[in-house]
Amino acid sequence: MRRLLVLNALIFAVLAAAAALAYYSFSATSEQTSRERERTLMQDLAEEKVANFEFLISSSDTKLMERIELDKLIEPDFIKGAIGPAVASVYVLEDCDPGDGCEMKFVTGGHNVTSARTDAESNAYRNWFMARVLAPAPEGQGLAERLKRLKLNTRDHLILNVGLVAKQTNAPPKPYLLSFMKRASNGRTFYVIVEDDTNTITQVLFPQFFVQSAKRLYQVVDETGLVRSGDPFVYQADDTLVERKFVDTFDGWALRVAQRETTDVSAEQRKRFINSLLIGGAVGVIVIGLVALAFAVRRERRLNDLKSEFISNVSHELKTPLSIISMFGEMLALGRTKSPEQAHEYAEIIWRESVRLGRLIDNVLDFAKMERGMDVYEFAEDVDVIETVARAVELSGRRVAAAEMTMTSILPEEMSPARLDANAVTLAVMNLIDNAVKYAADGKKIEVSLRQEGDVIMLAVRDWGPGIDPEEQHRIFERFYRAKSIRLKPIRGSGIGLALVQHIARAHGGEVTVTSKPNEGSTFSILLPIDGKT
């Protein structure tokens, strides 16, 4: 019964762990699907916002550059209405014939068509522009080289990270966003360069286009990872952040869109730790449960094999005394006896076999009750232990004599009365004696001893048979188990006698032990407390 309860509890634990894993898997899949959907939405949103911003800058700069004509530069209002939202300065440079050895130069009177700077700042900027920006650059990536490669009426752009003054070494370099176009008018080629004010873009336009919301956060970073607009993200998981690069304006810069997290780092880490414990515990329970179930199945399969052998052995054990009783009973019934002495002998054989049959049936019935967990013992107070053991010896005497063995008993003259089930103890002693008759007949003798040490009754049954292998001594009390050396001999047995002895001893609060050496016999000892309690 206890094994059944443990097995059911184990199955329930495995099912509960499997259900927990299934639920967690479903929850994790749903959460992952939701995150992927949100991530896709954020990617589309980032692309849309970057595209709208860059369209505004590129279209307004293109419109402005297309309206500039060399013959209208002296007119102060000819580009009125075409100035974009972030334009800081517009410069016009006239090209020259490379064969003349000349360089591009500002168109006279038109170098500062519009600017947010003062005249002094504009002059300083123009000088810096000619000296630094239009100077040849490595690998042909400077503005001058880019201008030469331009196709007519096609916009291009360049982002420069340089300082206006060389002493600005401690501050990060200021980015300069330039849009430029190659134009032709009346046989003259010139270039229009539009400088967009990055301060206006980062402080005004970016916050307008990338508005922080209760659900999403926006951030613009440059190629070094420096935040140019928006607040730094406190904590973001990798799957809650997307990035979209700028391609028509701020090369190397990127817009980052993140889902606003409602939990802090410690809470997220704590959640992951708890999830890891739950998953690990569930997997551990399943693994342990499956291993235990595998052992249980293996054990039950082995027990089934032993039960089959048990049924075969018990059938033979029952058949033998029944055949003898039937045969001699028939002879008595038909009067096939030569003398009263022979009739008495037949009757004695019938009585002996009926006692043997009754003991075997009692063993089977008591074992069946024991397997079902039923209370099969009736304890009584002040039981005479000496009389109980002597009765078991007397009932087993004919069985021992029939096996041509001798049995001696060493019983004390007096002993304290005990609380026990006399019939159960008698059955235990008879089983031990019967076990010695079956498996130690070669020793020719059996000794039954009884003594008291303090509050403990010590009952021993000793034989001088072949002994028991040390590797099997801890298993001989298992139900249906029979030693390997016995299985090879034509000795029938049920395999429940010693298991029943152990159950009786433990029910009385005691224990049964065996001491044995090969070829030196065996001693089975039953230790029982006087009061019947552990």
Question: Overview of this structure, please?
Answer:
The protein has 534 residues and is an alpha+beta fold. The protein has 10 helices and 16 strands. Strands 2-1-5-4-3 form a 5-stranded antiparallel beta sheet. A 5-stranded mixed beta sheet has the order 11-13-14-16-15, with helices on one face. The longest helix has 69 residues, at 265-333. The protein is rod-shaped.
How do the strands of the widest beta sheet line up side by side?
2-1-5-4-3
Largest sheet: 5 strands, antiparallel
Roughly how many Å is the radius of gyration? 52 Å
Tell me, what's the shape? rod-shaped
Characteristics:
five-stranded antiparallel β-sheet; alpha+beta; 534 residues; single chain; 10 helices; 19% strand; five-stranded mixed β-sheet
Entry summary:
With 534 residues, the protein is α+β, with helices and mostly antiparallel strands. The chain contains 10 helices and 16 strands.
How do the helices and strands line up, and which of them pair or pack?
Layout: H1 2-67, E1 87-94, E2 105-106, H2 119-133, H3 143-148, E3 155-162, E4 174-185, E5 188-196, H4 198-209, E6 216-221, E7 227-229, E8 241-245, E9 254-259, H5 265-333, H6 340-371, E10 380-383, H7 385-402, E11 406-410, E12 418-420, H8 422-439, E13 445-453, E14 456-463, H9 484-487, H10 497-507, E15 511-516, E16 522-529
